[in-house]
Amino acid sequence: MYQLLFTDHGLSATEVSSLFIIWSTTAFLLEVPSGAWADVFSRRKLLVLGTLIRGLGFAGWIVVPSYAGFALGFVLWGISSALISGTFEALVYDELAARGAADRYAGLIGRAKSAALVLNLAATALAAPLFKLGGYPLLGIVSVVSCLAQAAVAVSLPEATRVATADETKEVEAATERLAGERSVAEGTAGDGPVAERPAGDGRVAERPAGDGSAADGVLGRYVAMLRAGLSEVATSRVVRKAVVLVALLGGFLAFDEYFPLLARGIGASTALVPLLIAGTVAAQAIGGALAGPAYRMRGWVLGVGLALSAGLLAWGALSGTAVGFVPIALGYGFMQLVIIVAEARLQDAITGPARATVTSVSGLFAEVFAVLVYAGFALGAVWFALPVLVAGLTIPLFLTALITPAALPPPASQSEQGAEG
């Protein structure tokens, strides 16, 4: 409904797209740095902080319903997205790995995201009666309350020991020790003191220089070491690198749904009917996510063909000009969700280093880059083309992504372990 909030307050399609660009740019700038923090600090606390910041942004939209207020809200939402992206996936994977159940990741994360979509569906269905009851202010209040509920759930999550081999842990320790030595030399102090290791409360490795005992230096050293470890794995592992690119491309295509409400409004749907049309796409996503577990071992070429068909369905629905067109849109979006979760799960299995959240955040960063390009394309294209044509045009890069899916998708875990590359 927030797209309609913007247009009902006088914003044009170009201005709405510029807000999306602000949103994605903020998340883009903070994506990888926040991922590295999640590999050093408590992921659970970062999830709590992220949901609270998002709620603050929603409150700002209601208090200051202007372009400036909307932009501020999207900045806060971008910060929230960066804190949560990669953090949640890494927390879930390491929790399962600590219990010897990493092979259940695809099914569990698929069901979790489906549950989130079902709740999103319920919220979408309630949007129309809530709007009639209290307008946009009531919708904003309910959104803030939902963020508080998310924070409460995040507080209850367990946080297991990070998954890393002894060699990988030594690599991070060595990198931290080198950084401490470099700072000592730069400051003209003795850097020959050993690095003492102490156990962290949640099982993570936590080093501190034995020289001056500066906690800040230890934290900074671990942060930079994790950042380097994550970026190094993306740069040196071809399997991980291809998976990161594929997940980023697929994640960027989720920019589609930001324009579905405007597409529905364009065919003459009332404000009360728009949420019901969008509900169909959300329901299809939930079904696709729930099926990601069984589809985890599906061959890459099968997923690629399905993704290509999804592109065709989305284009057909966008150009239909009727409410019935949202049926093929929902089908295409549902299968795209299935492929996204399978790709994300195989990326998690392909990661072998200690900086899991950082690597995951790299894919999130490039997804934001692609999303910004999509939003910019809509903003510029709106000058010459109607929205249905622009949505249909976006399915062309989706079709091209389907062509590279078989080659870029990592094999299932059991196969990748047999032929893993470093």
Automatic annotation (TrEMBL):
Q: Which Pfam families is this protein grouped with? A: MFS_1
UniProt keyword Chloroplast, yes or no? no
Alphabetically sorted, this entry's keywords are: Membrane, Transmembrane, Transmembrane helix
Q: Which InterPro entries match?
A: MFS (IPR011701), MFS_DHA3_Transporter (IPR053160), MFS_trans_sf (IPR036259)
Q: Where is this region: Disordered?
A: 177-213
Q: State where composition is biased (Basic and acidic residues).
A: 199-210
- In Swiss-Prot or TrEMBL terms, this protein is called MFS transporter
Q: Which organism is it from?
A: Kribbella koreensis
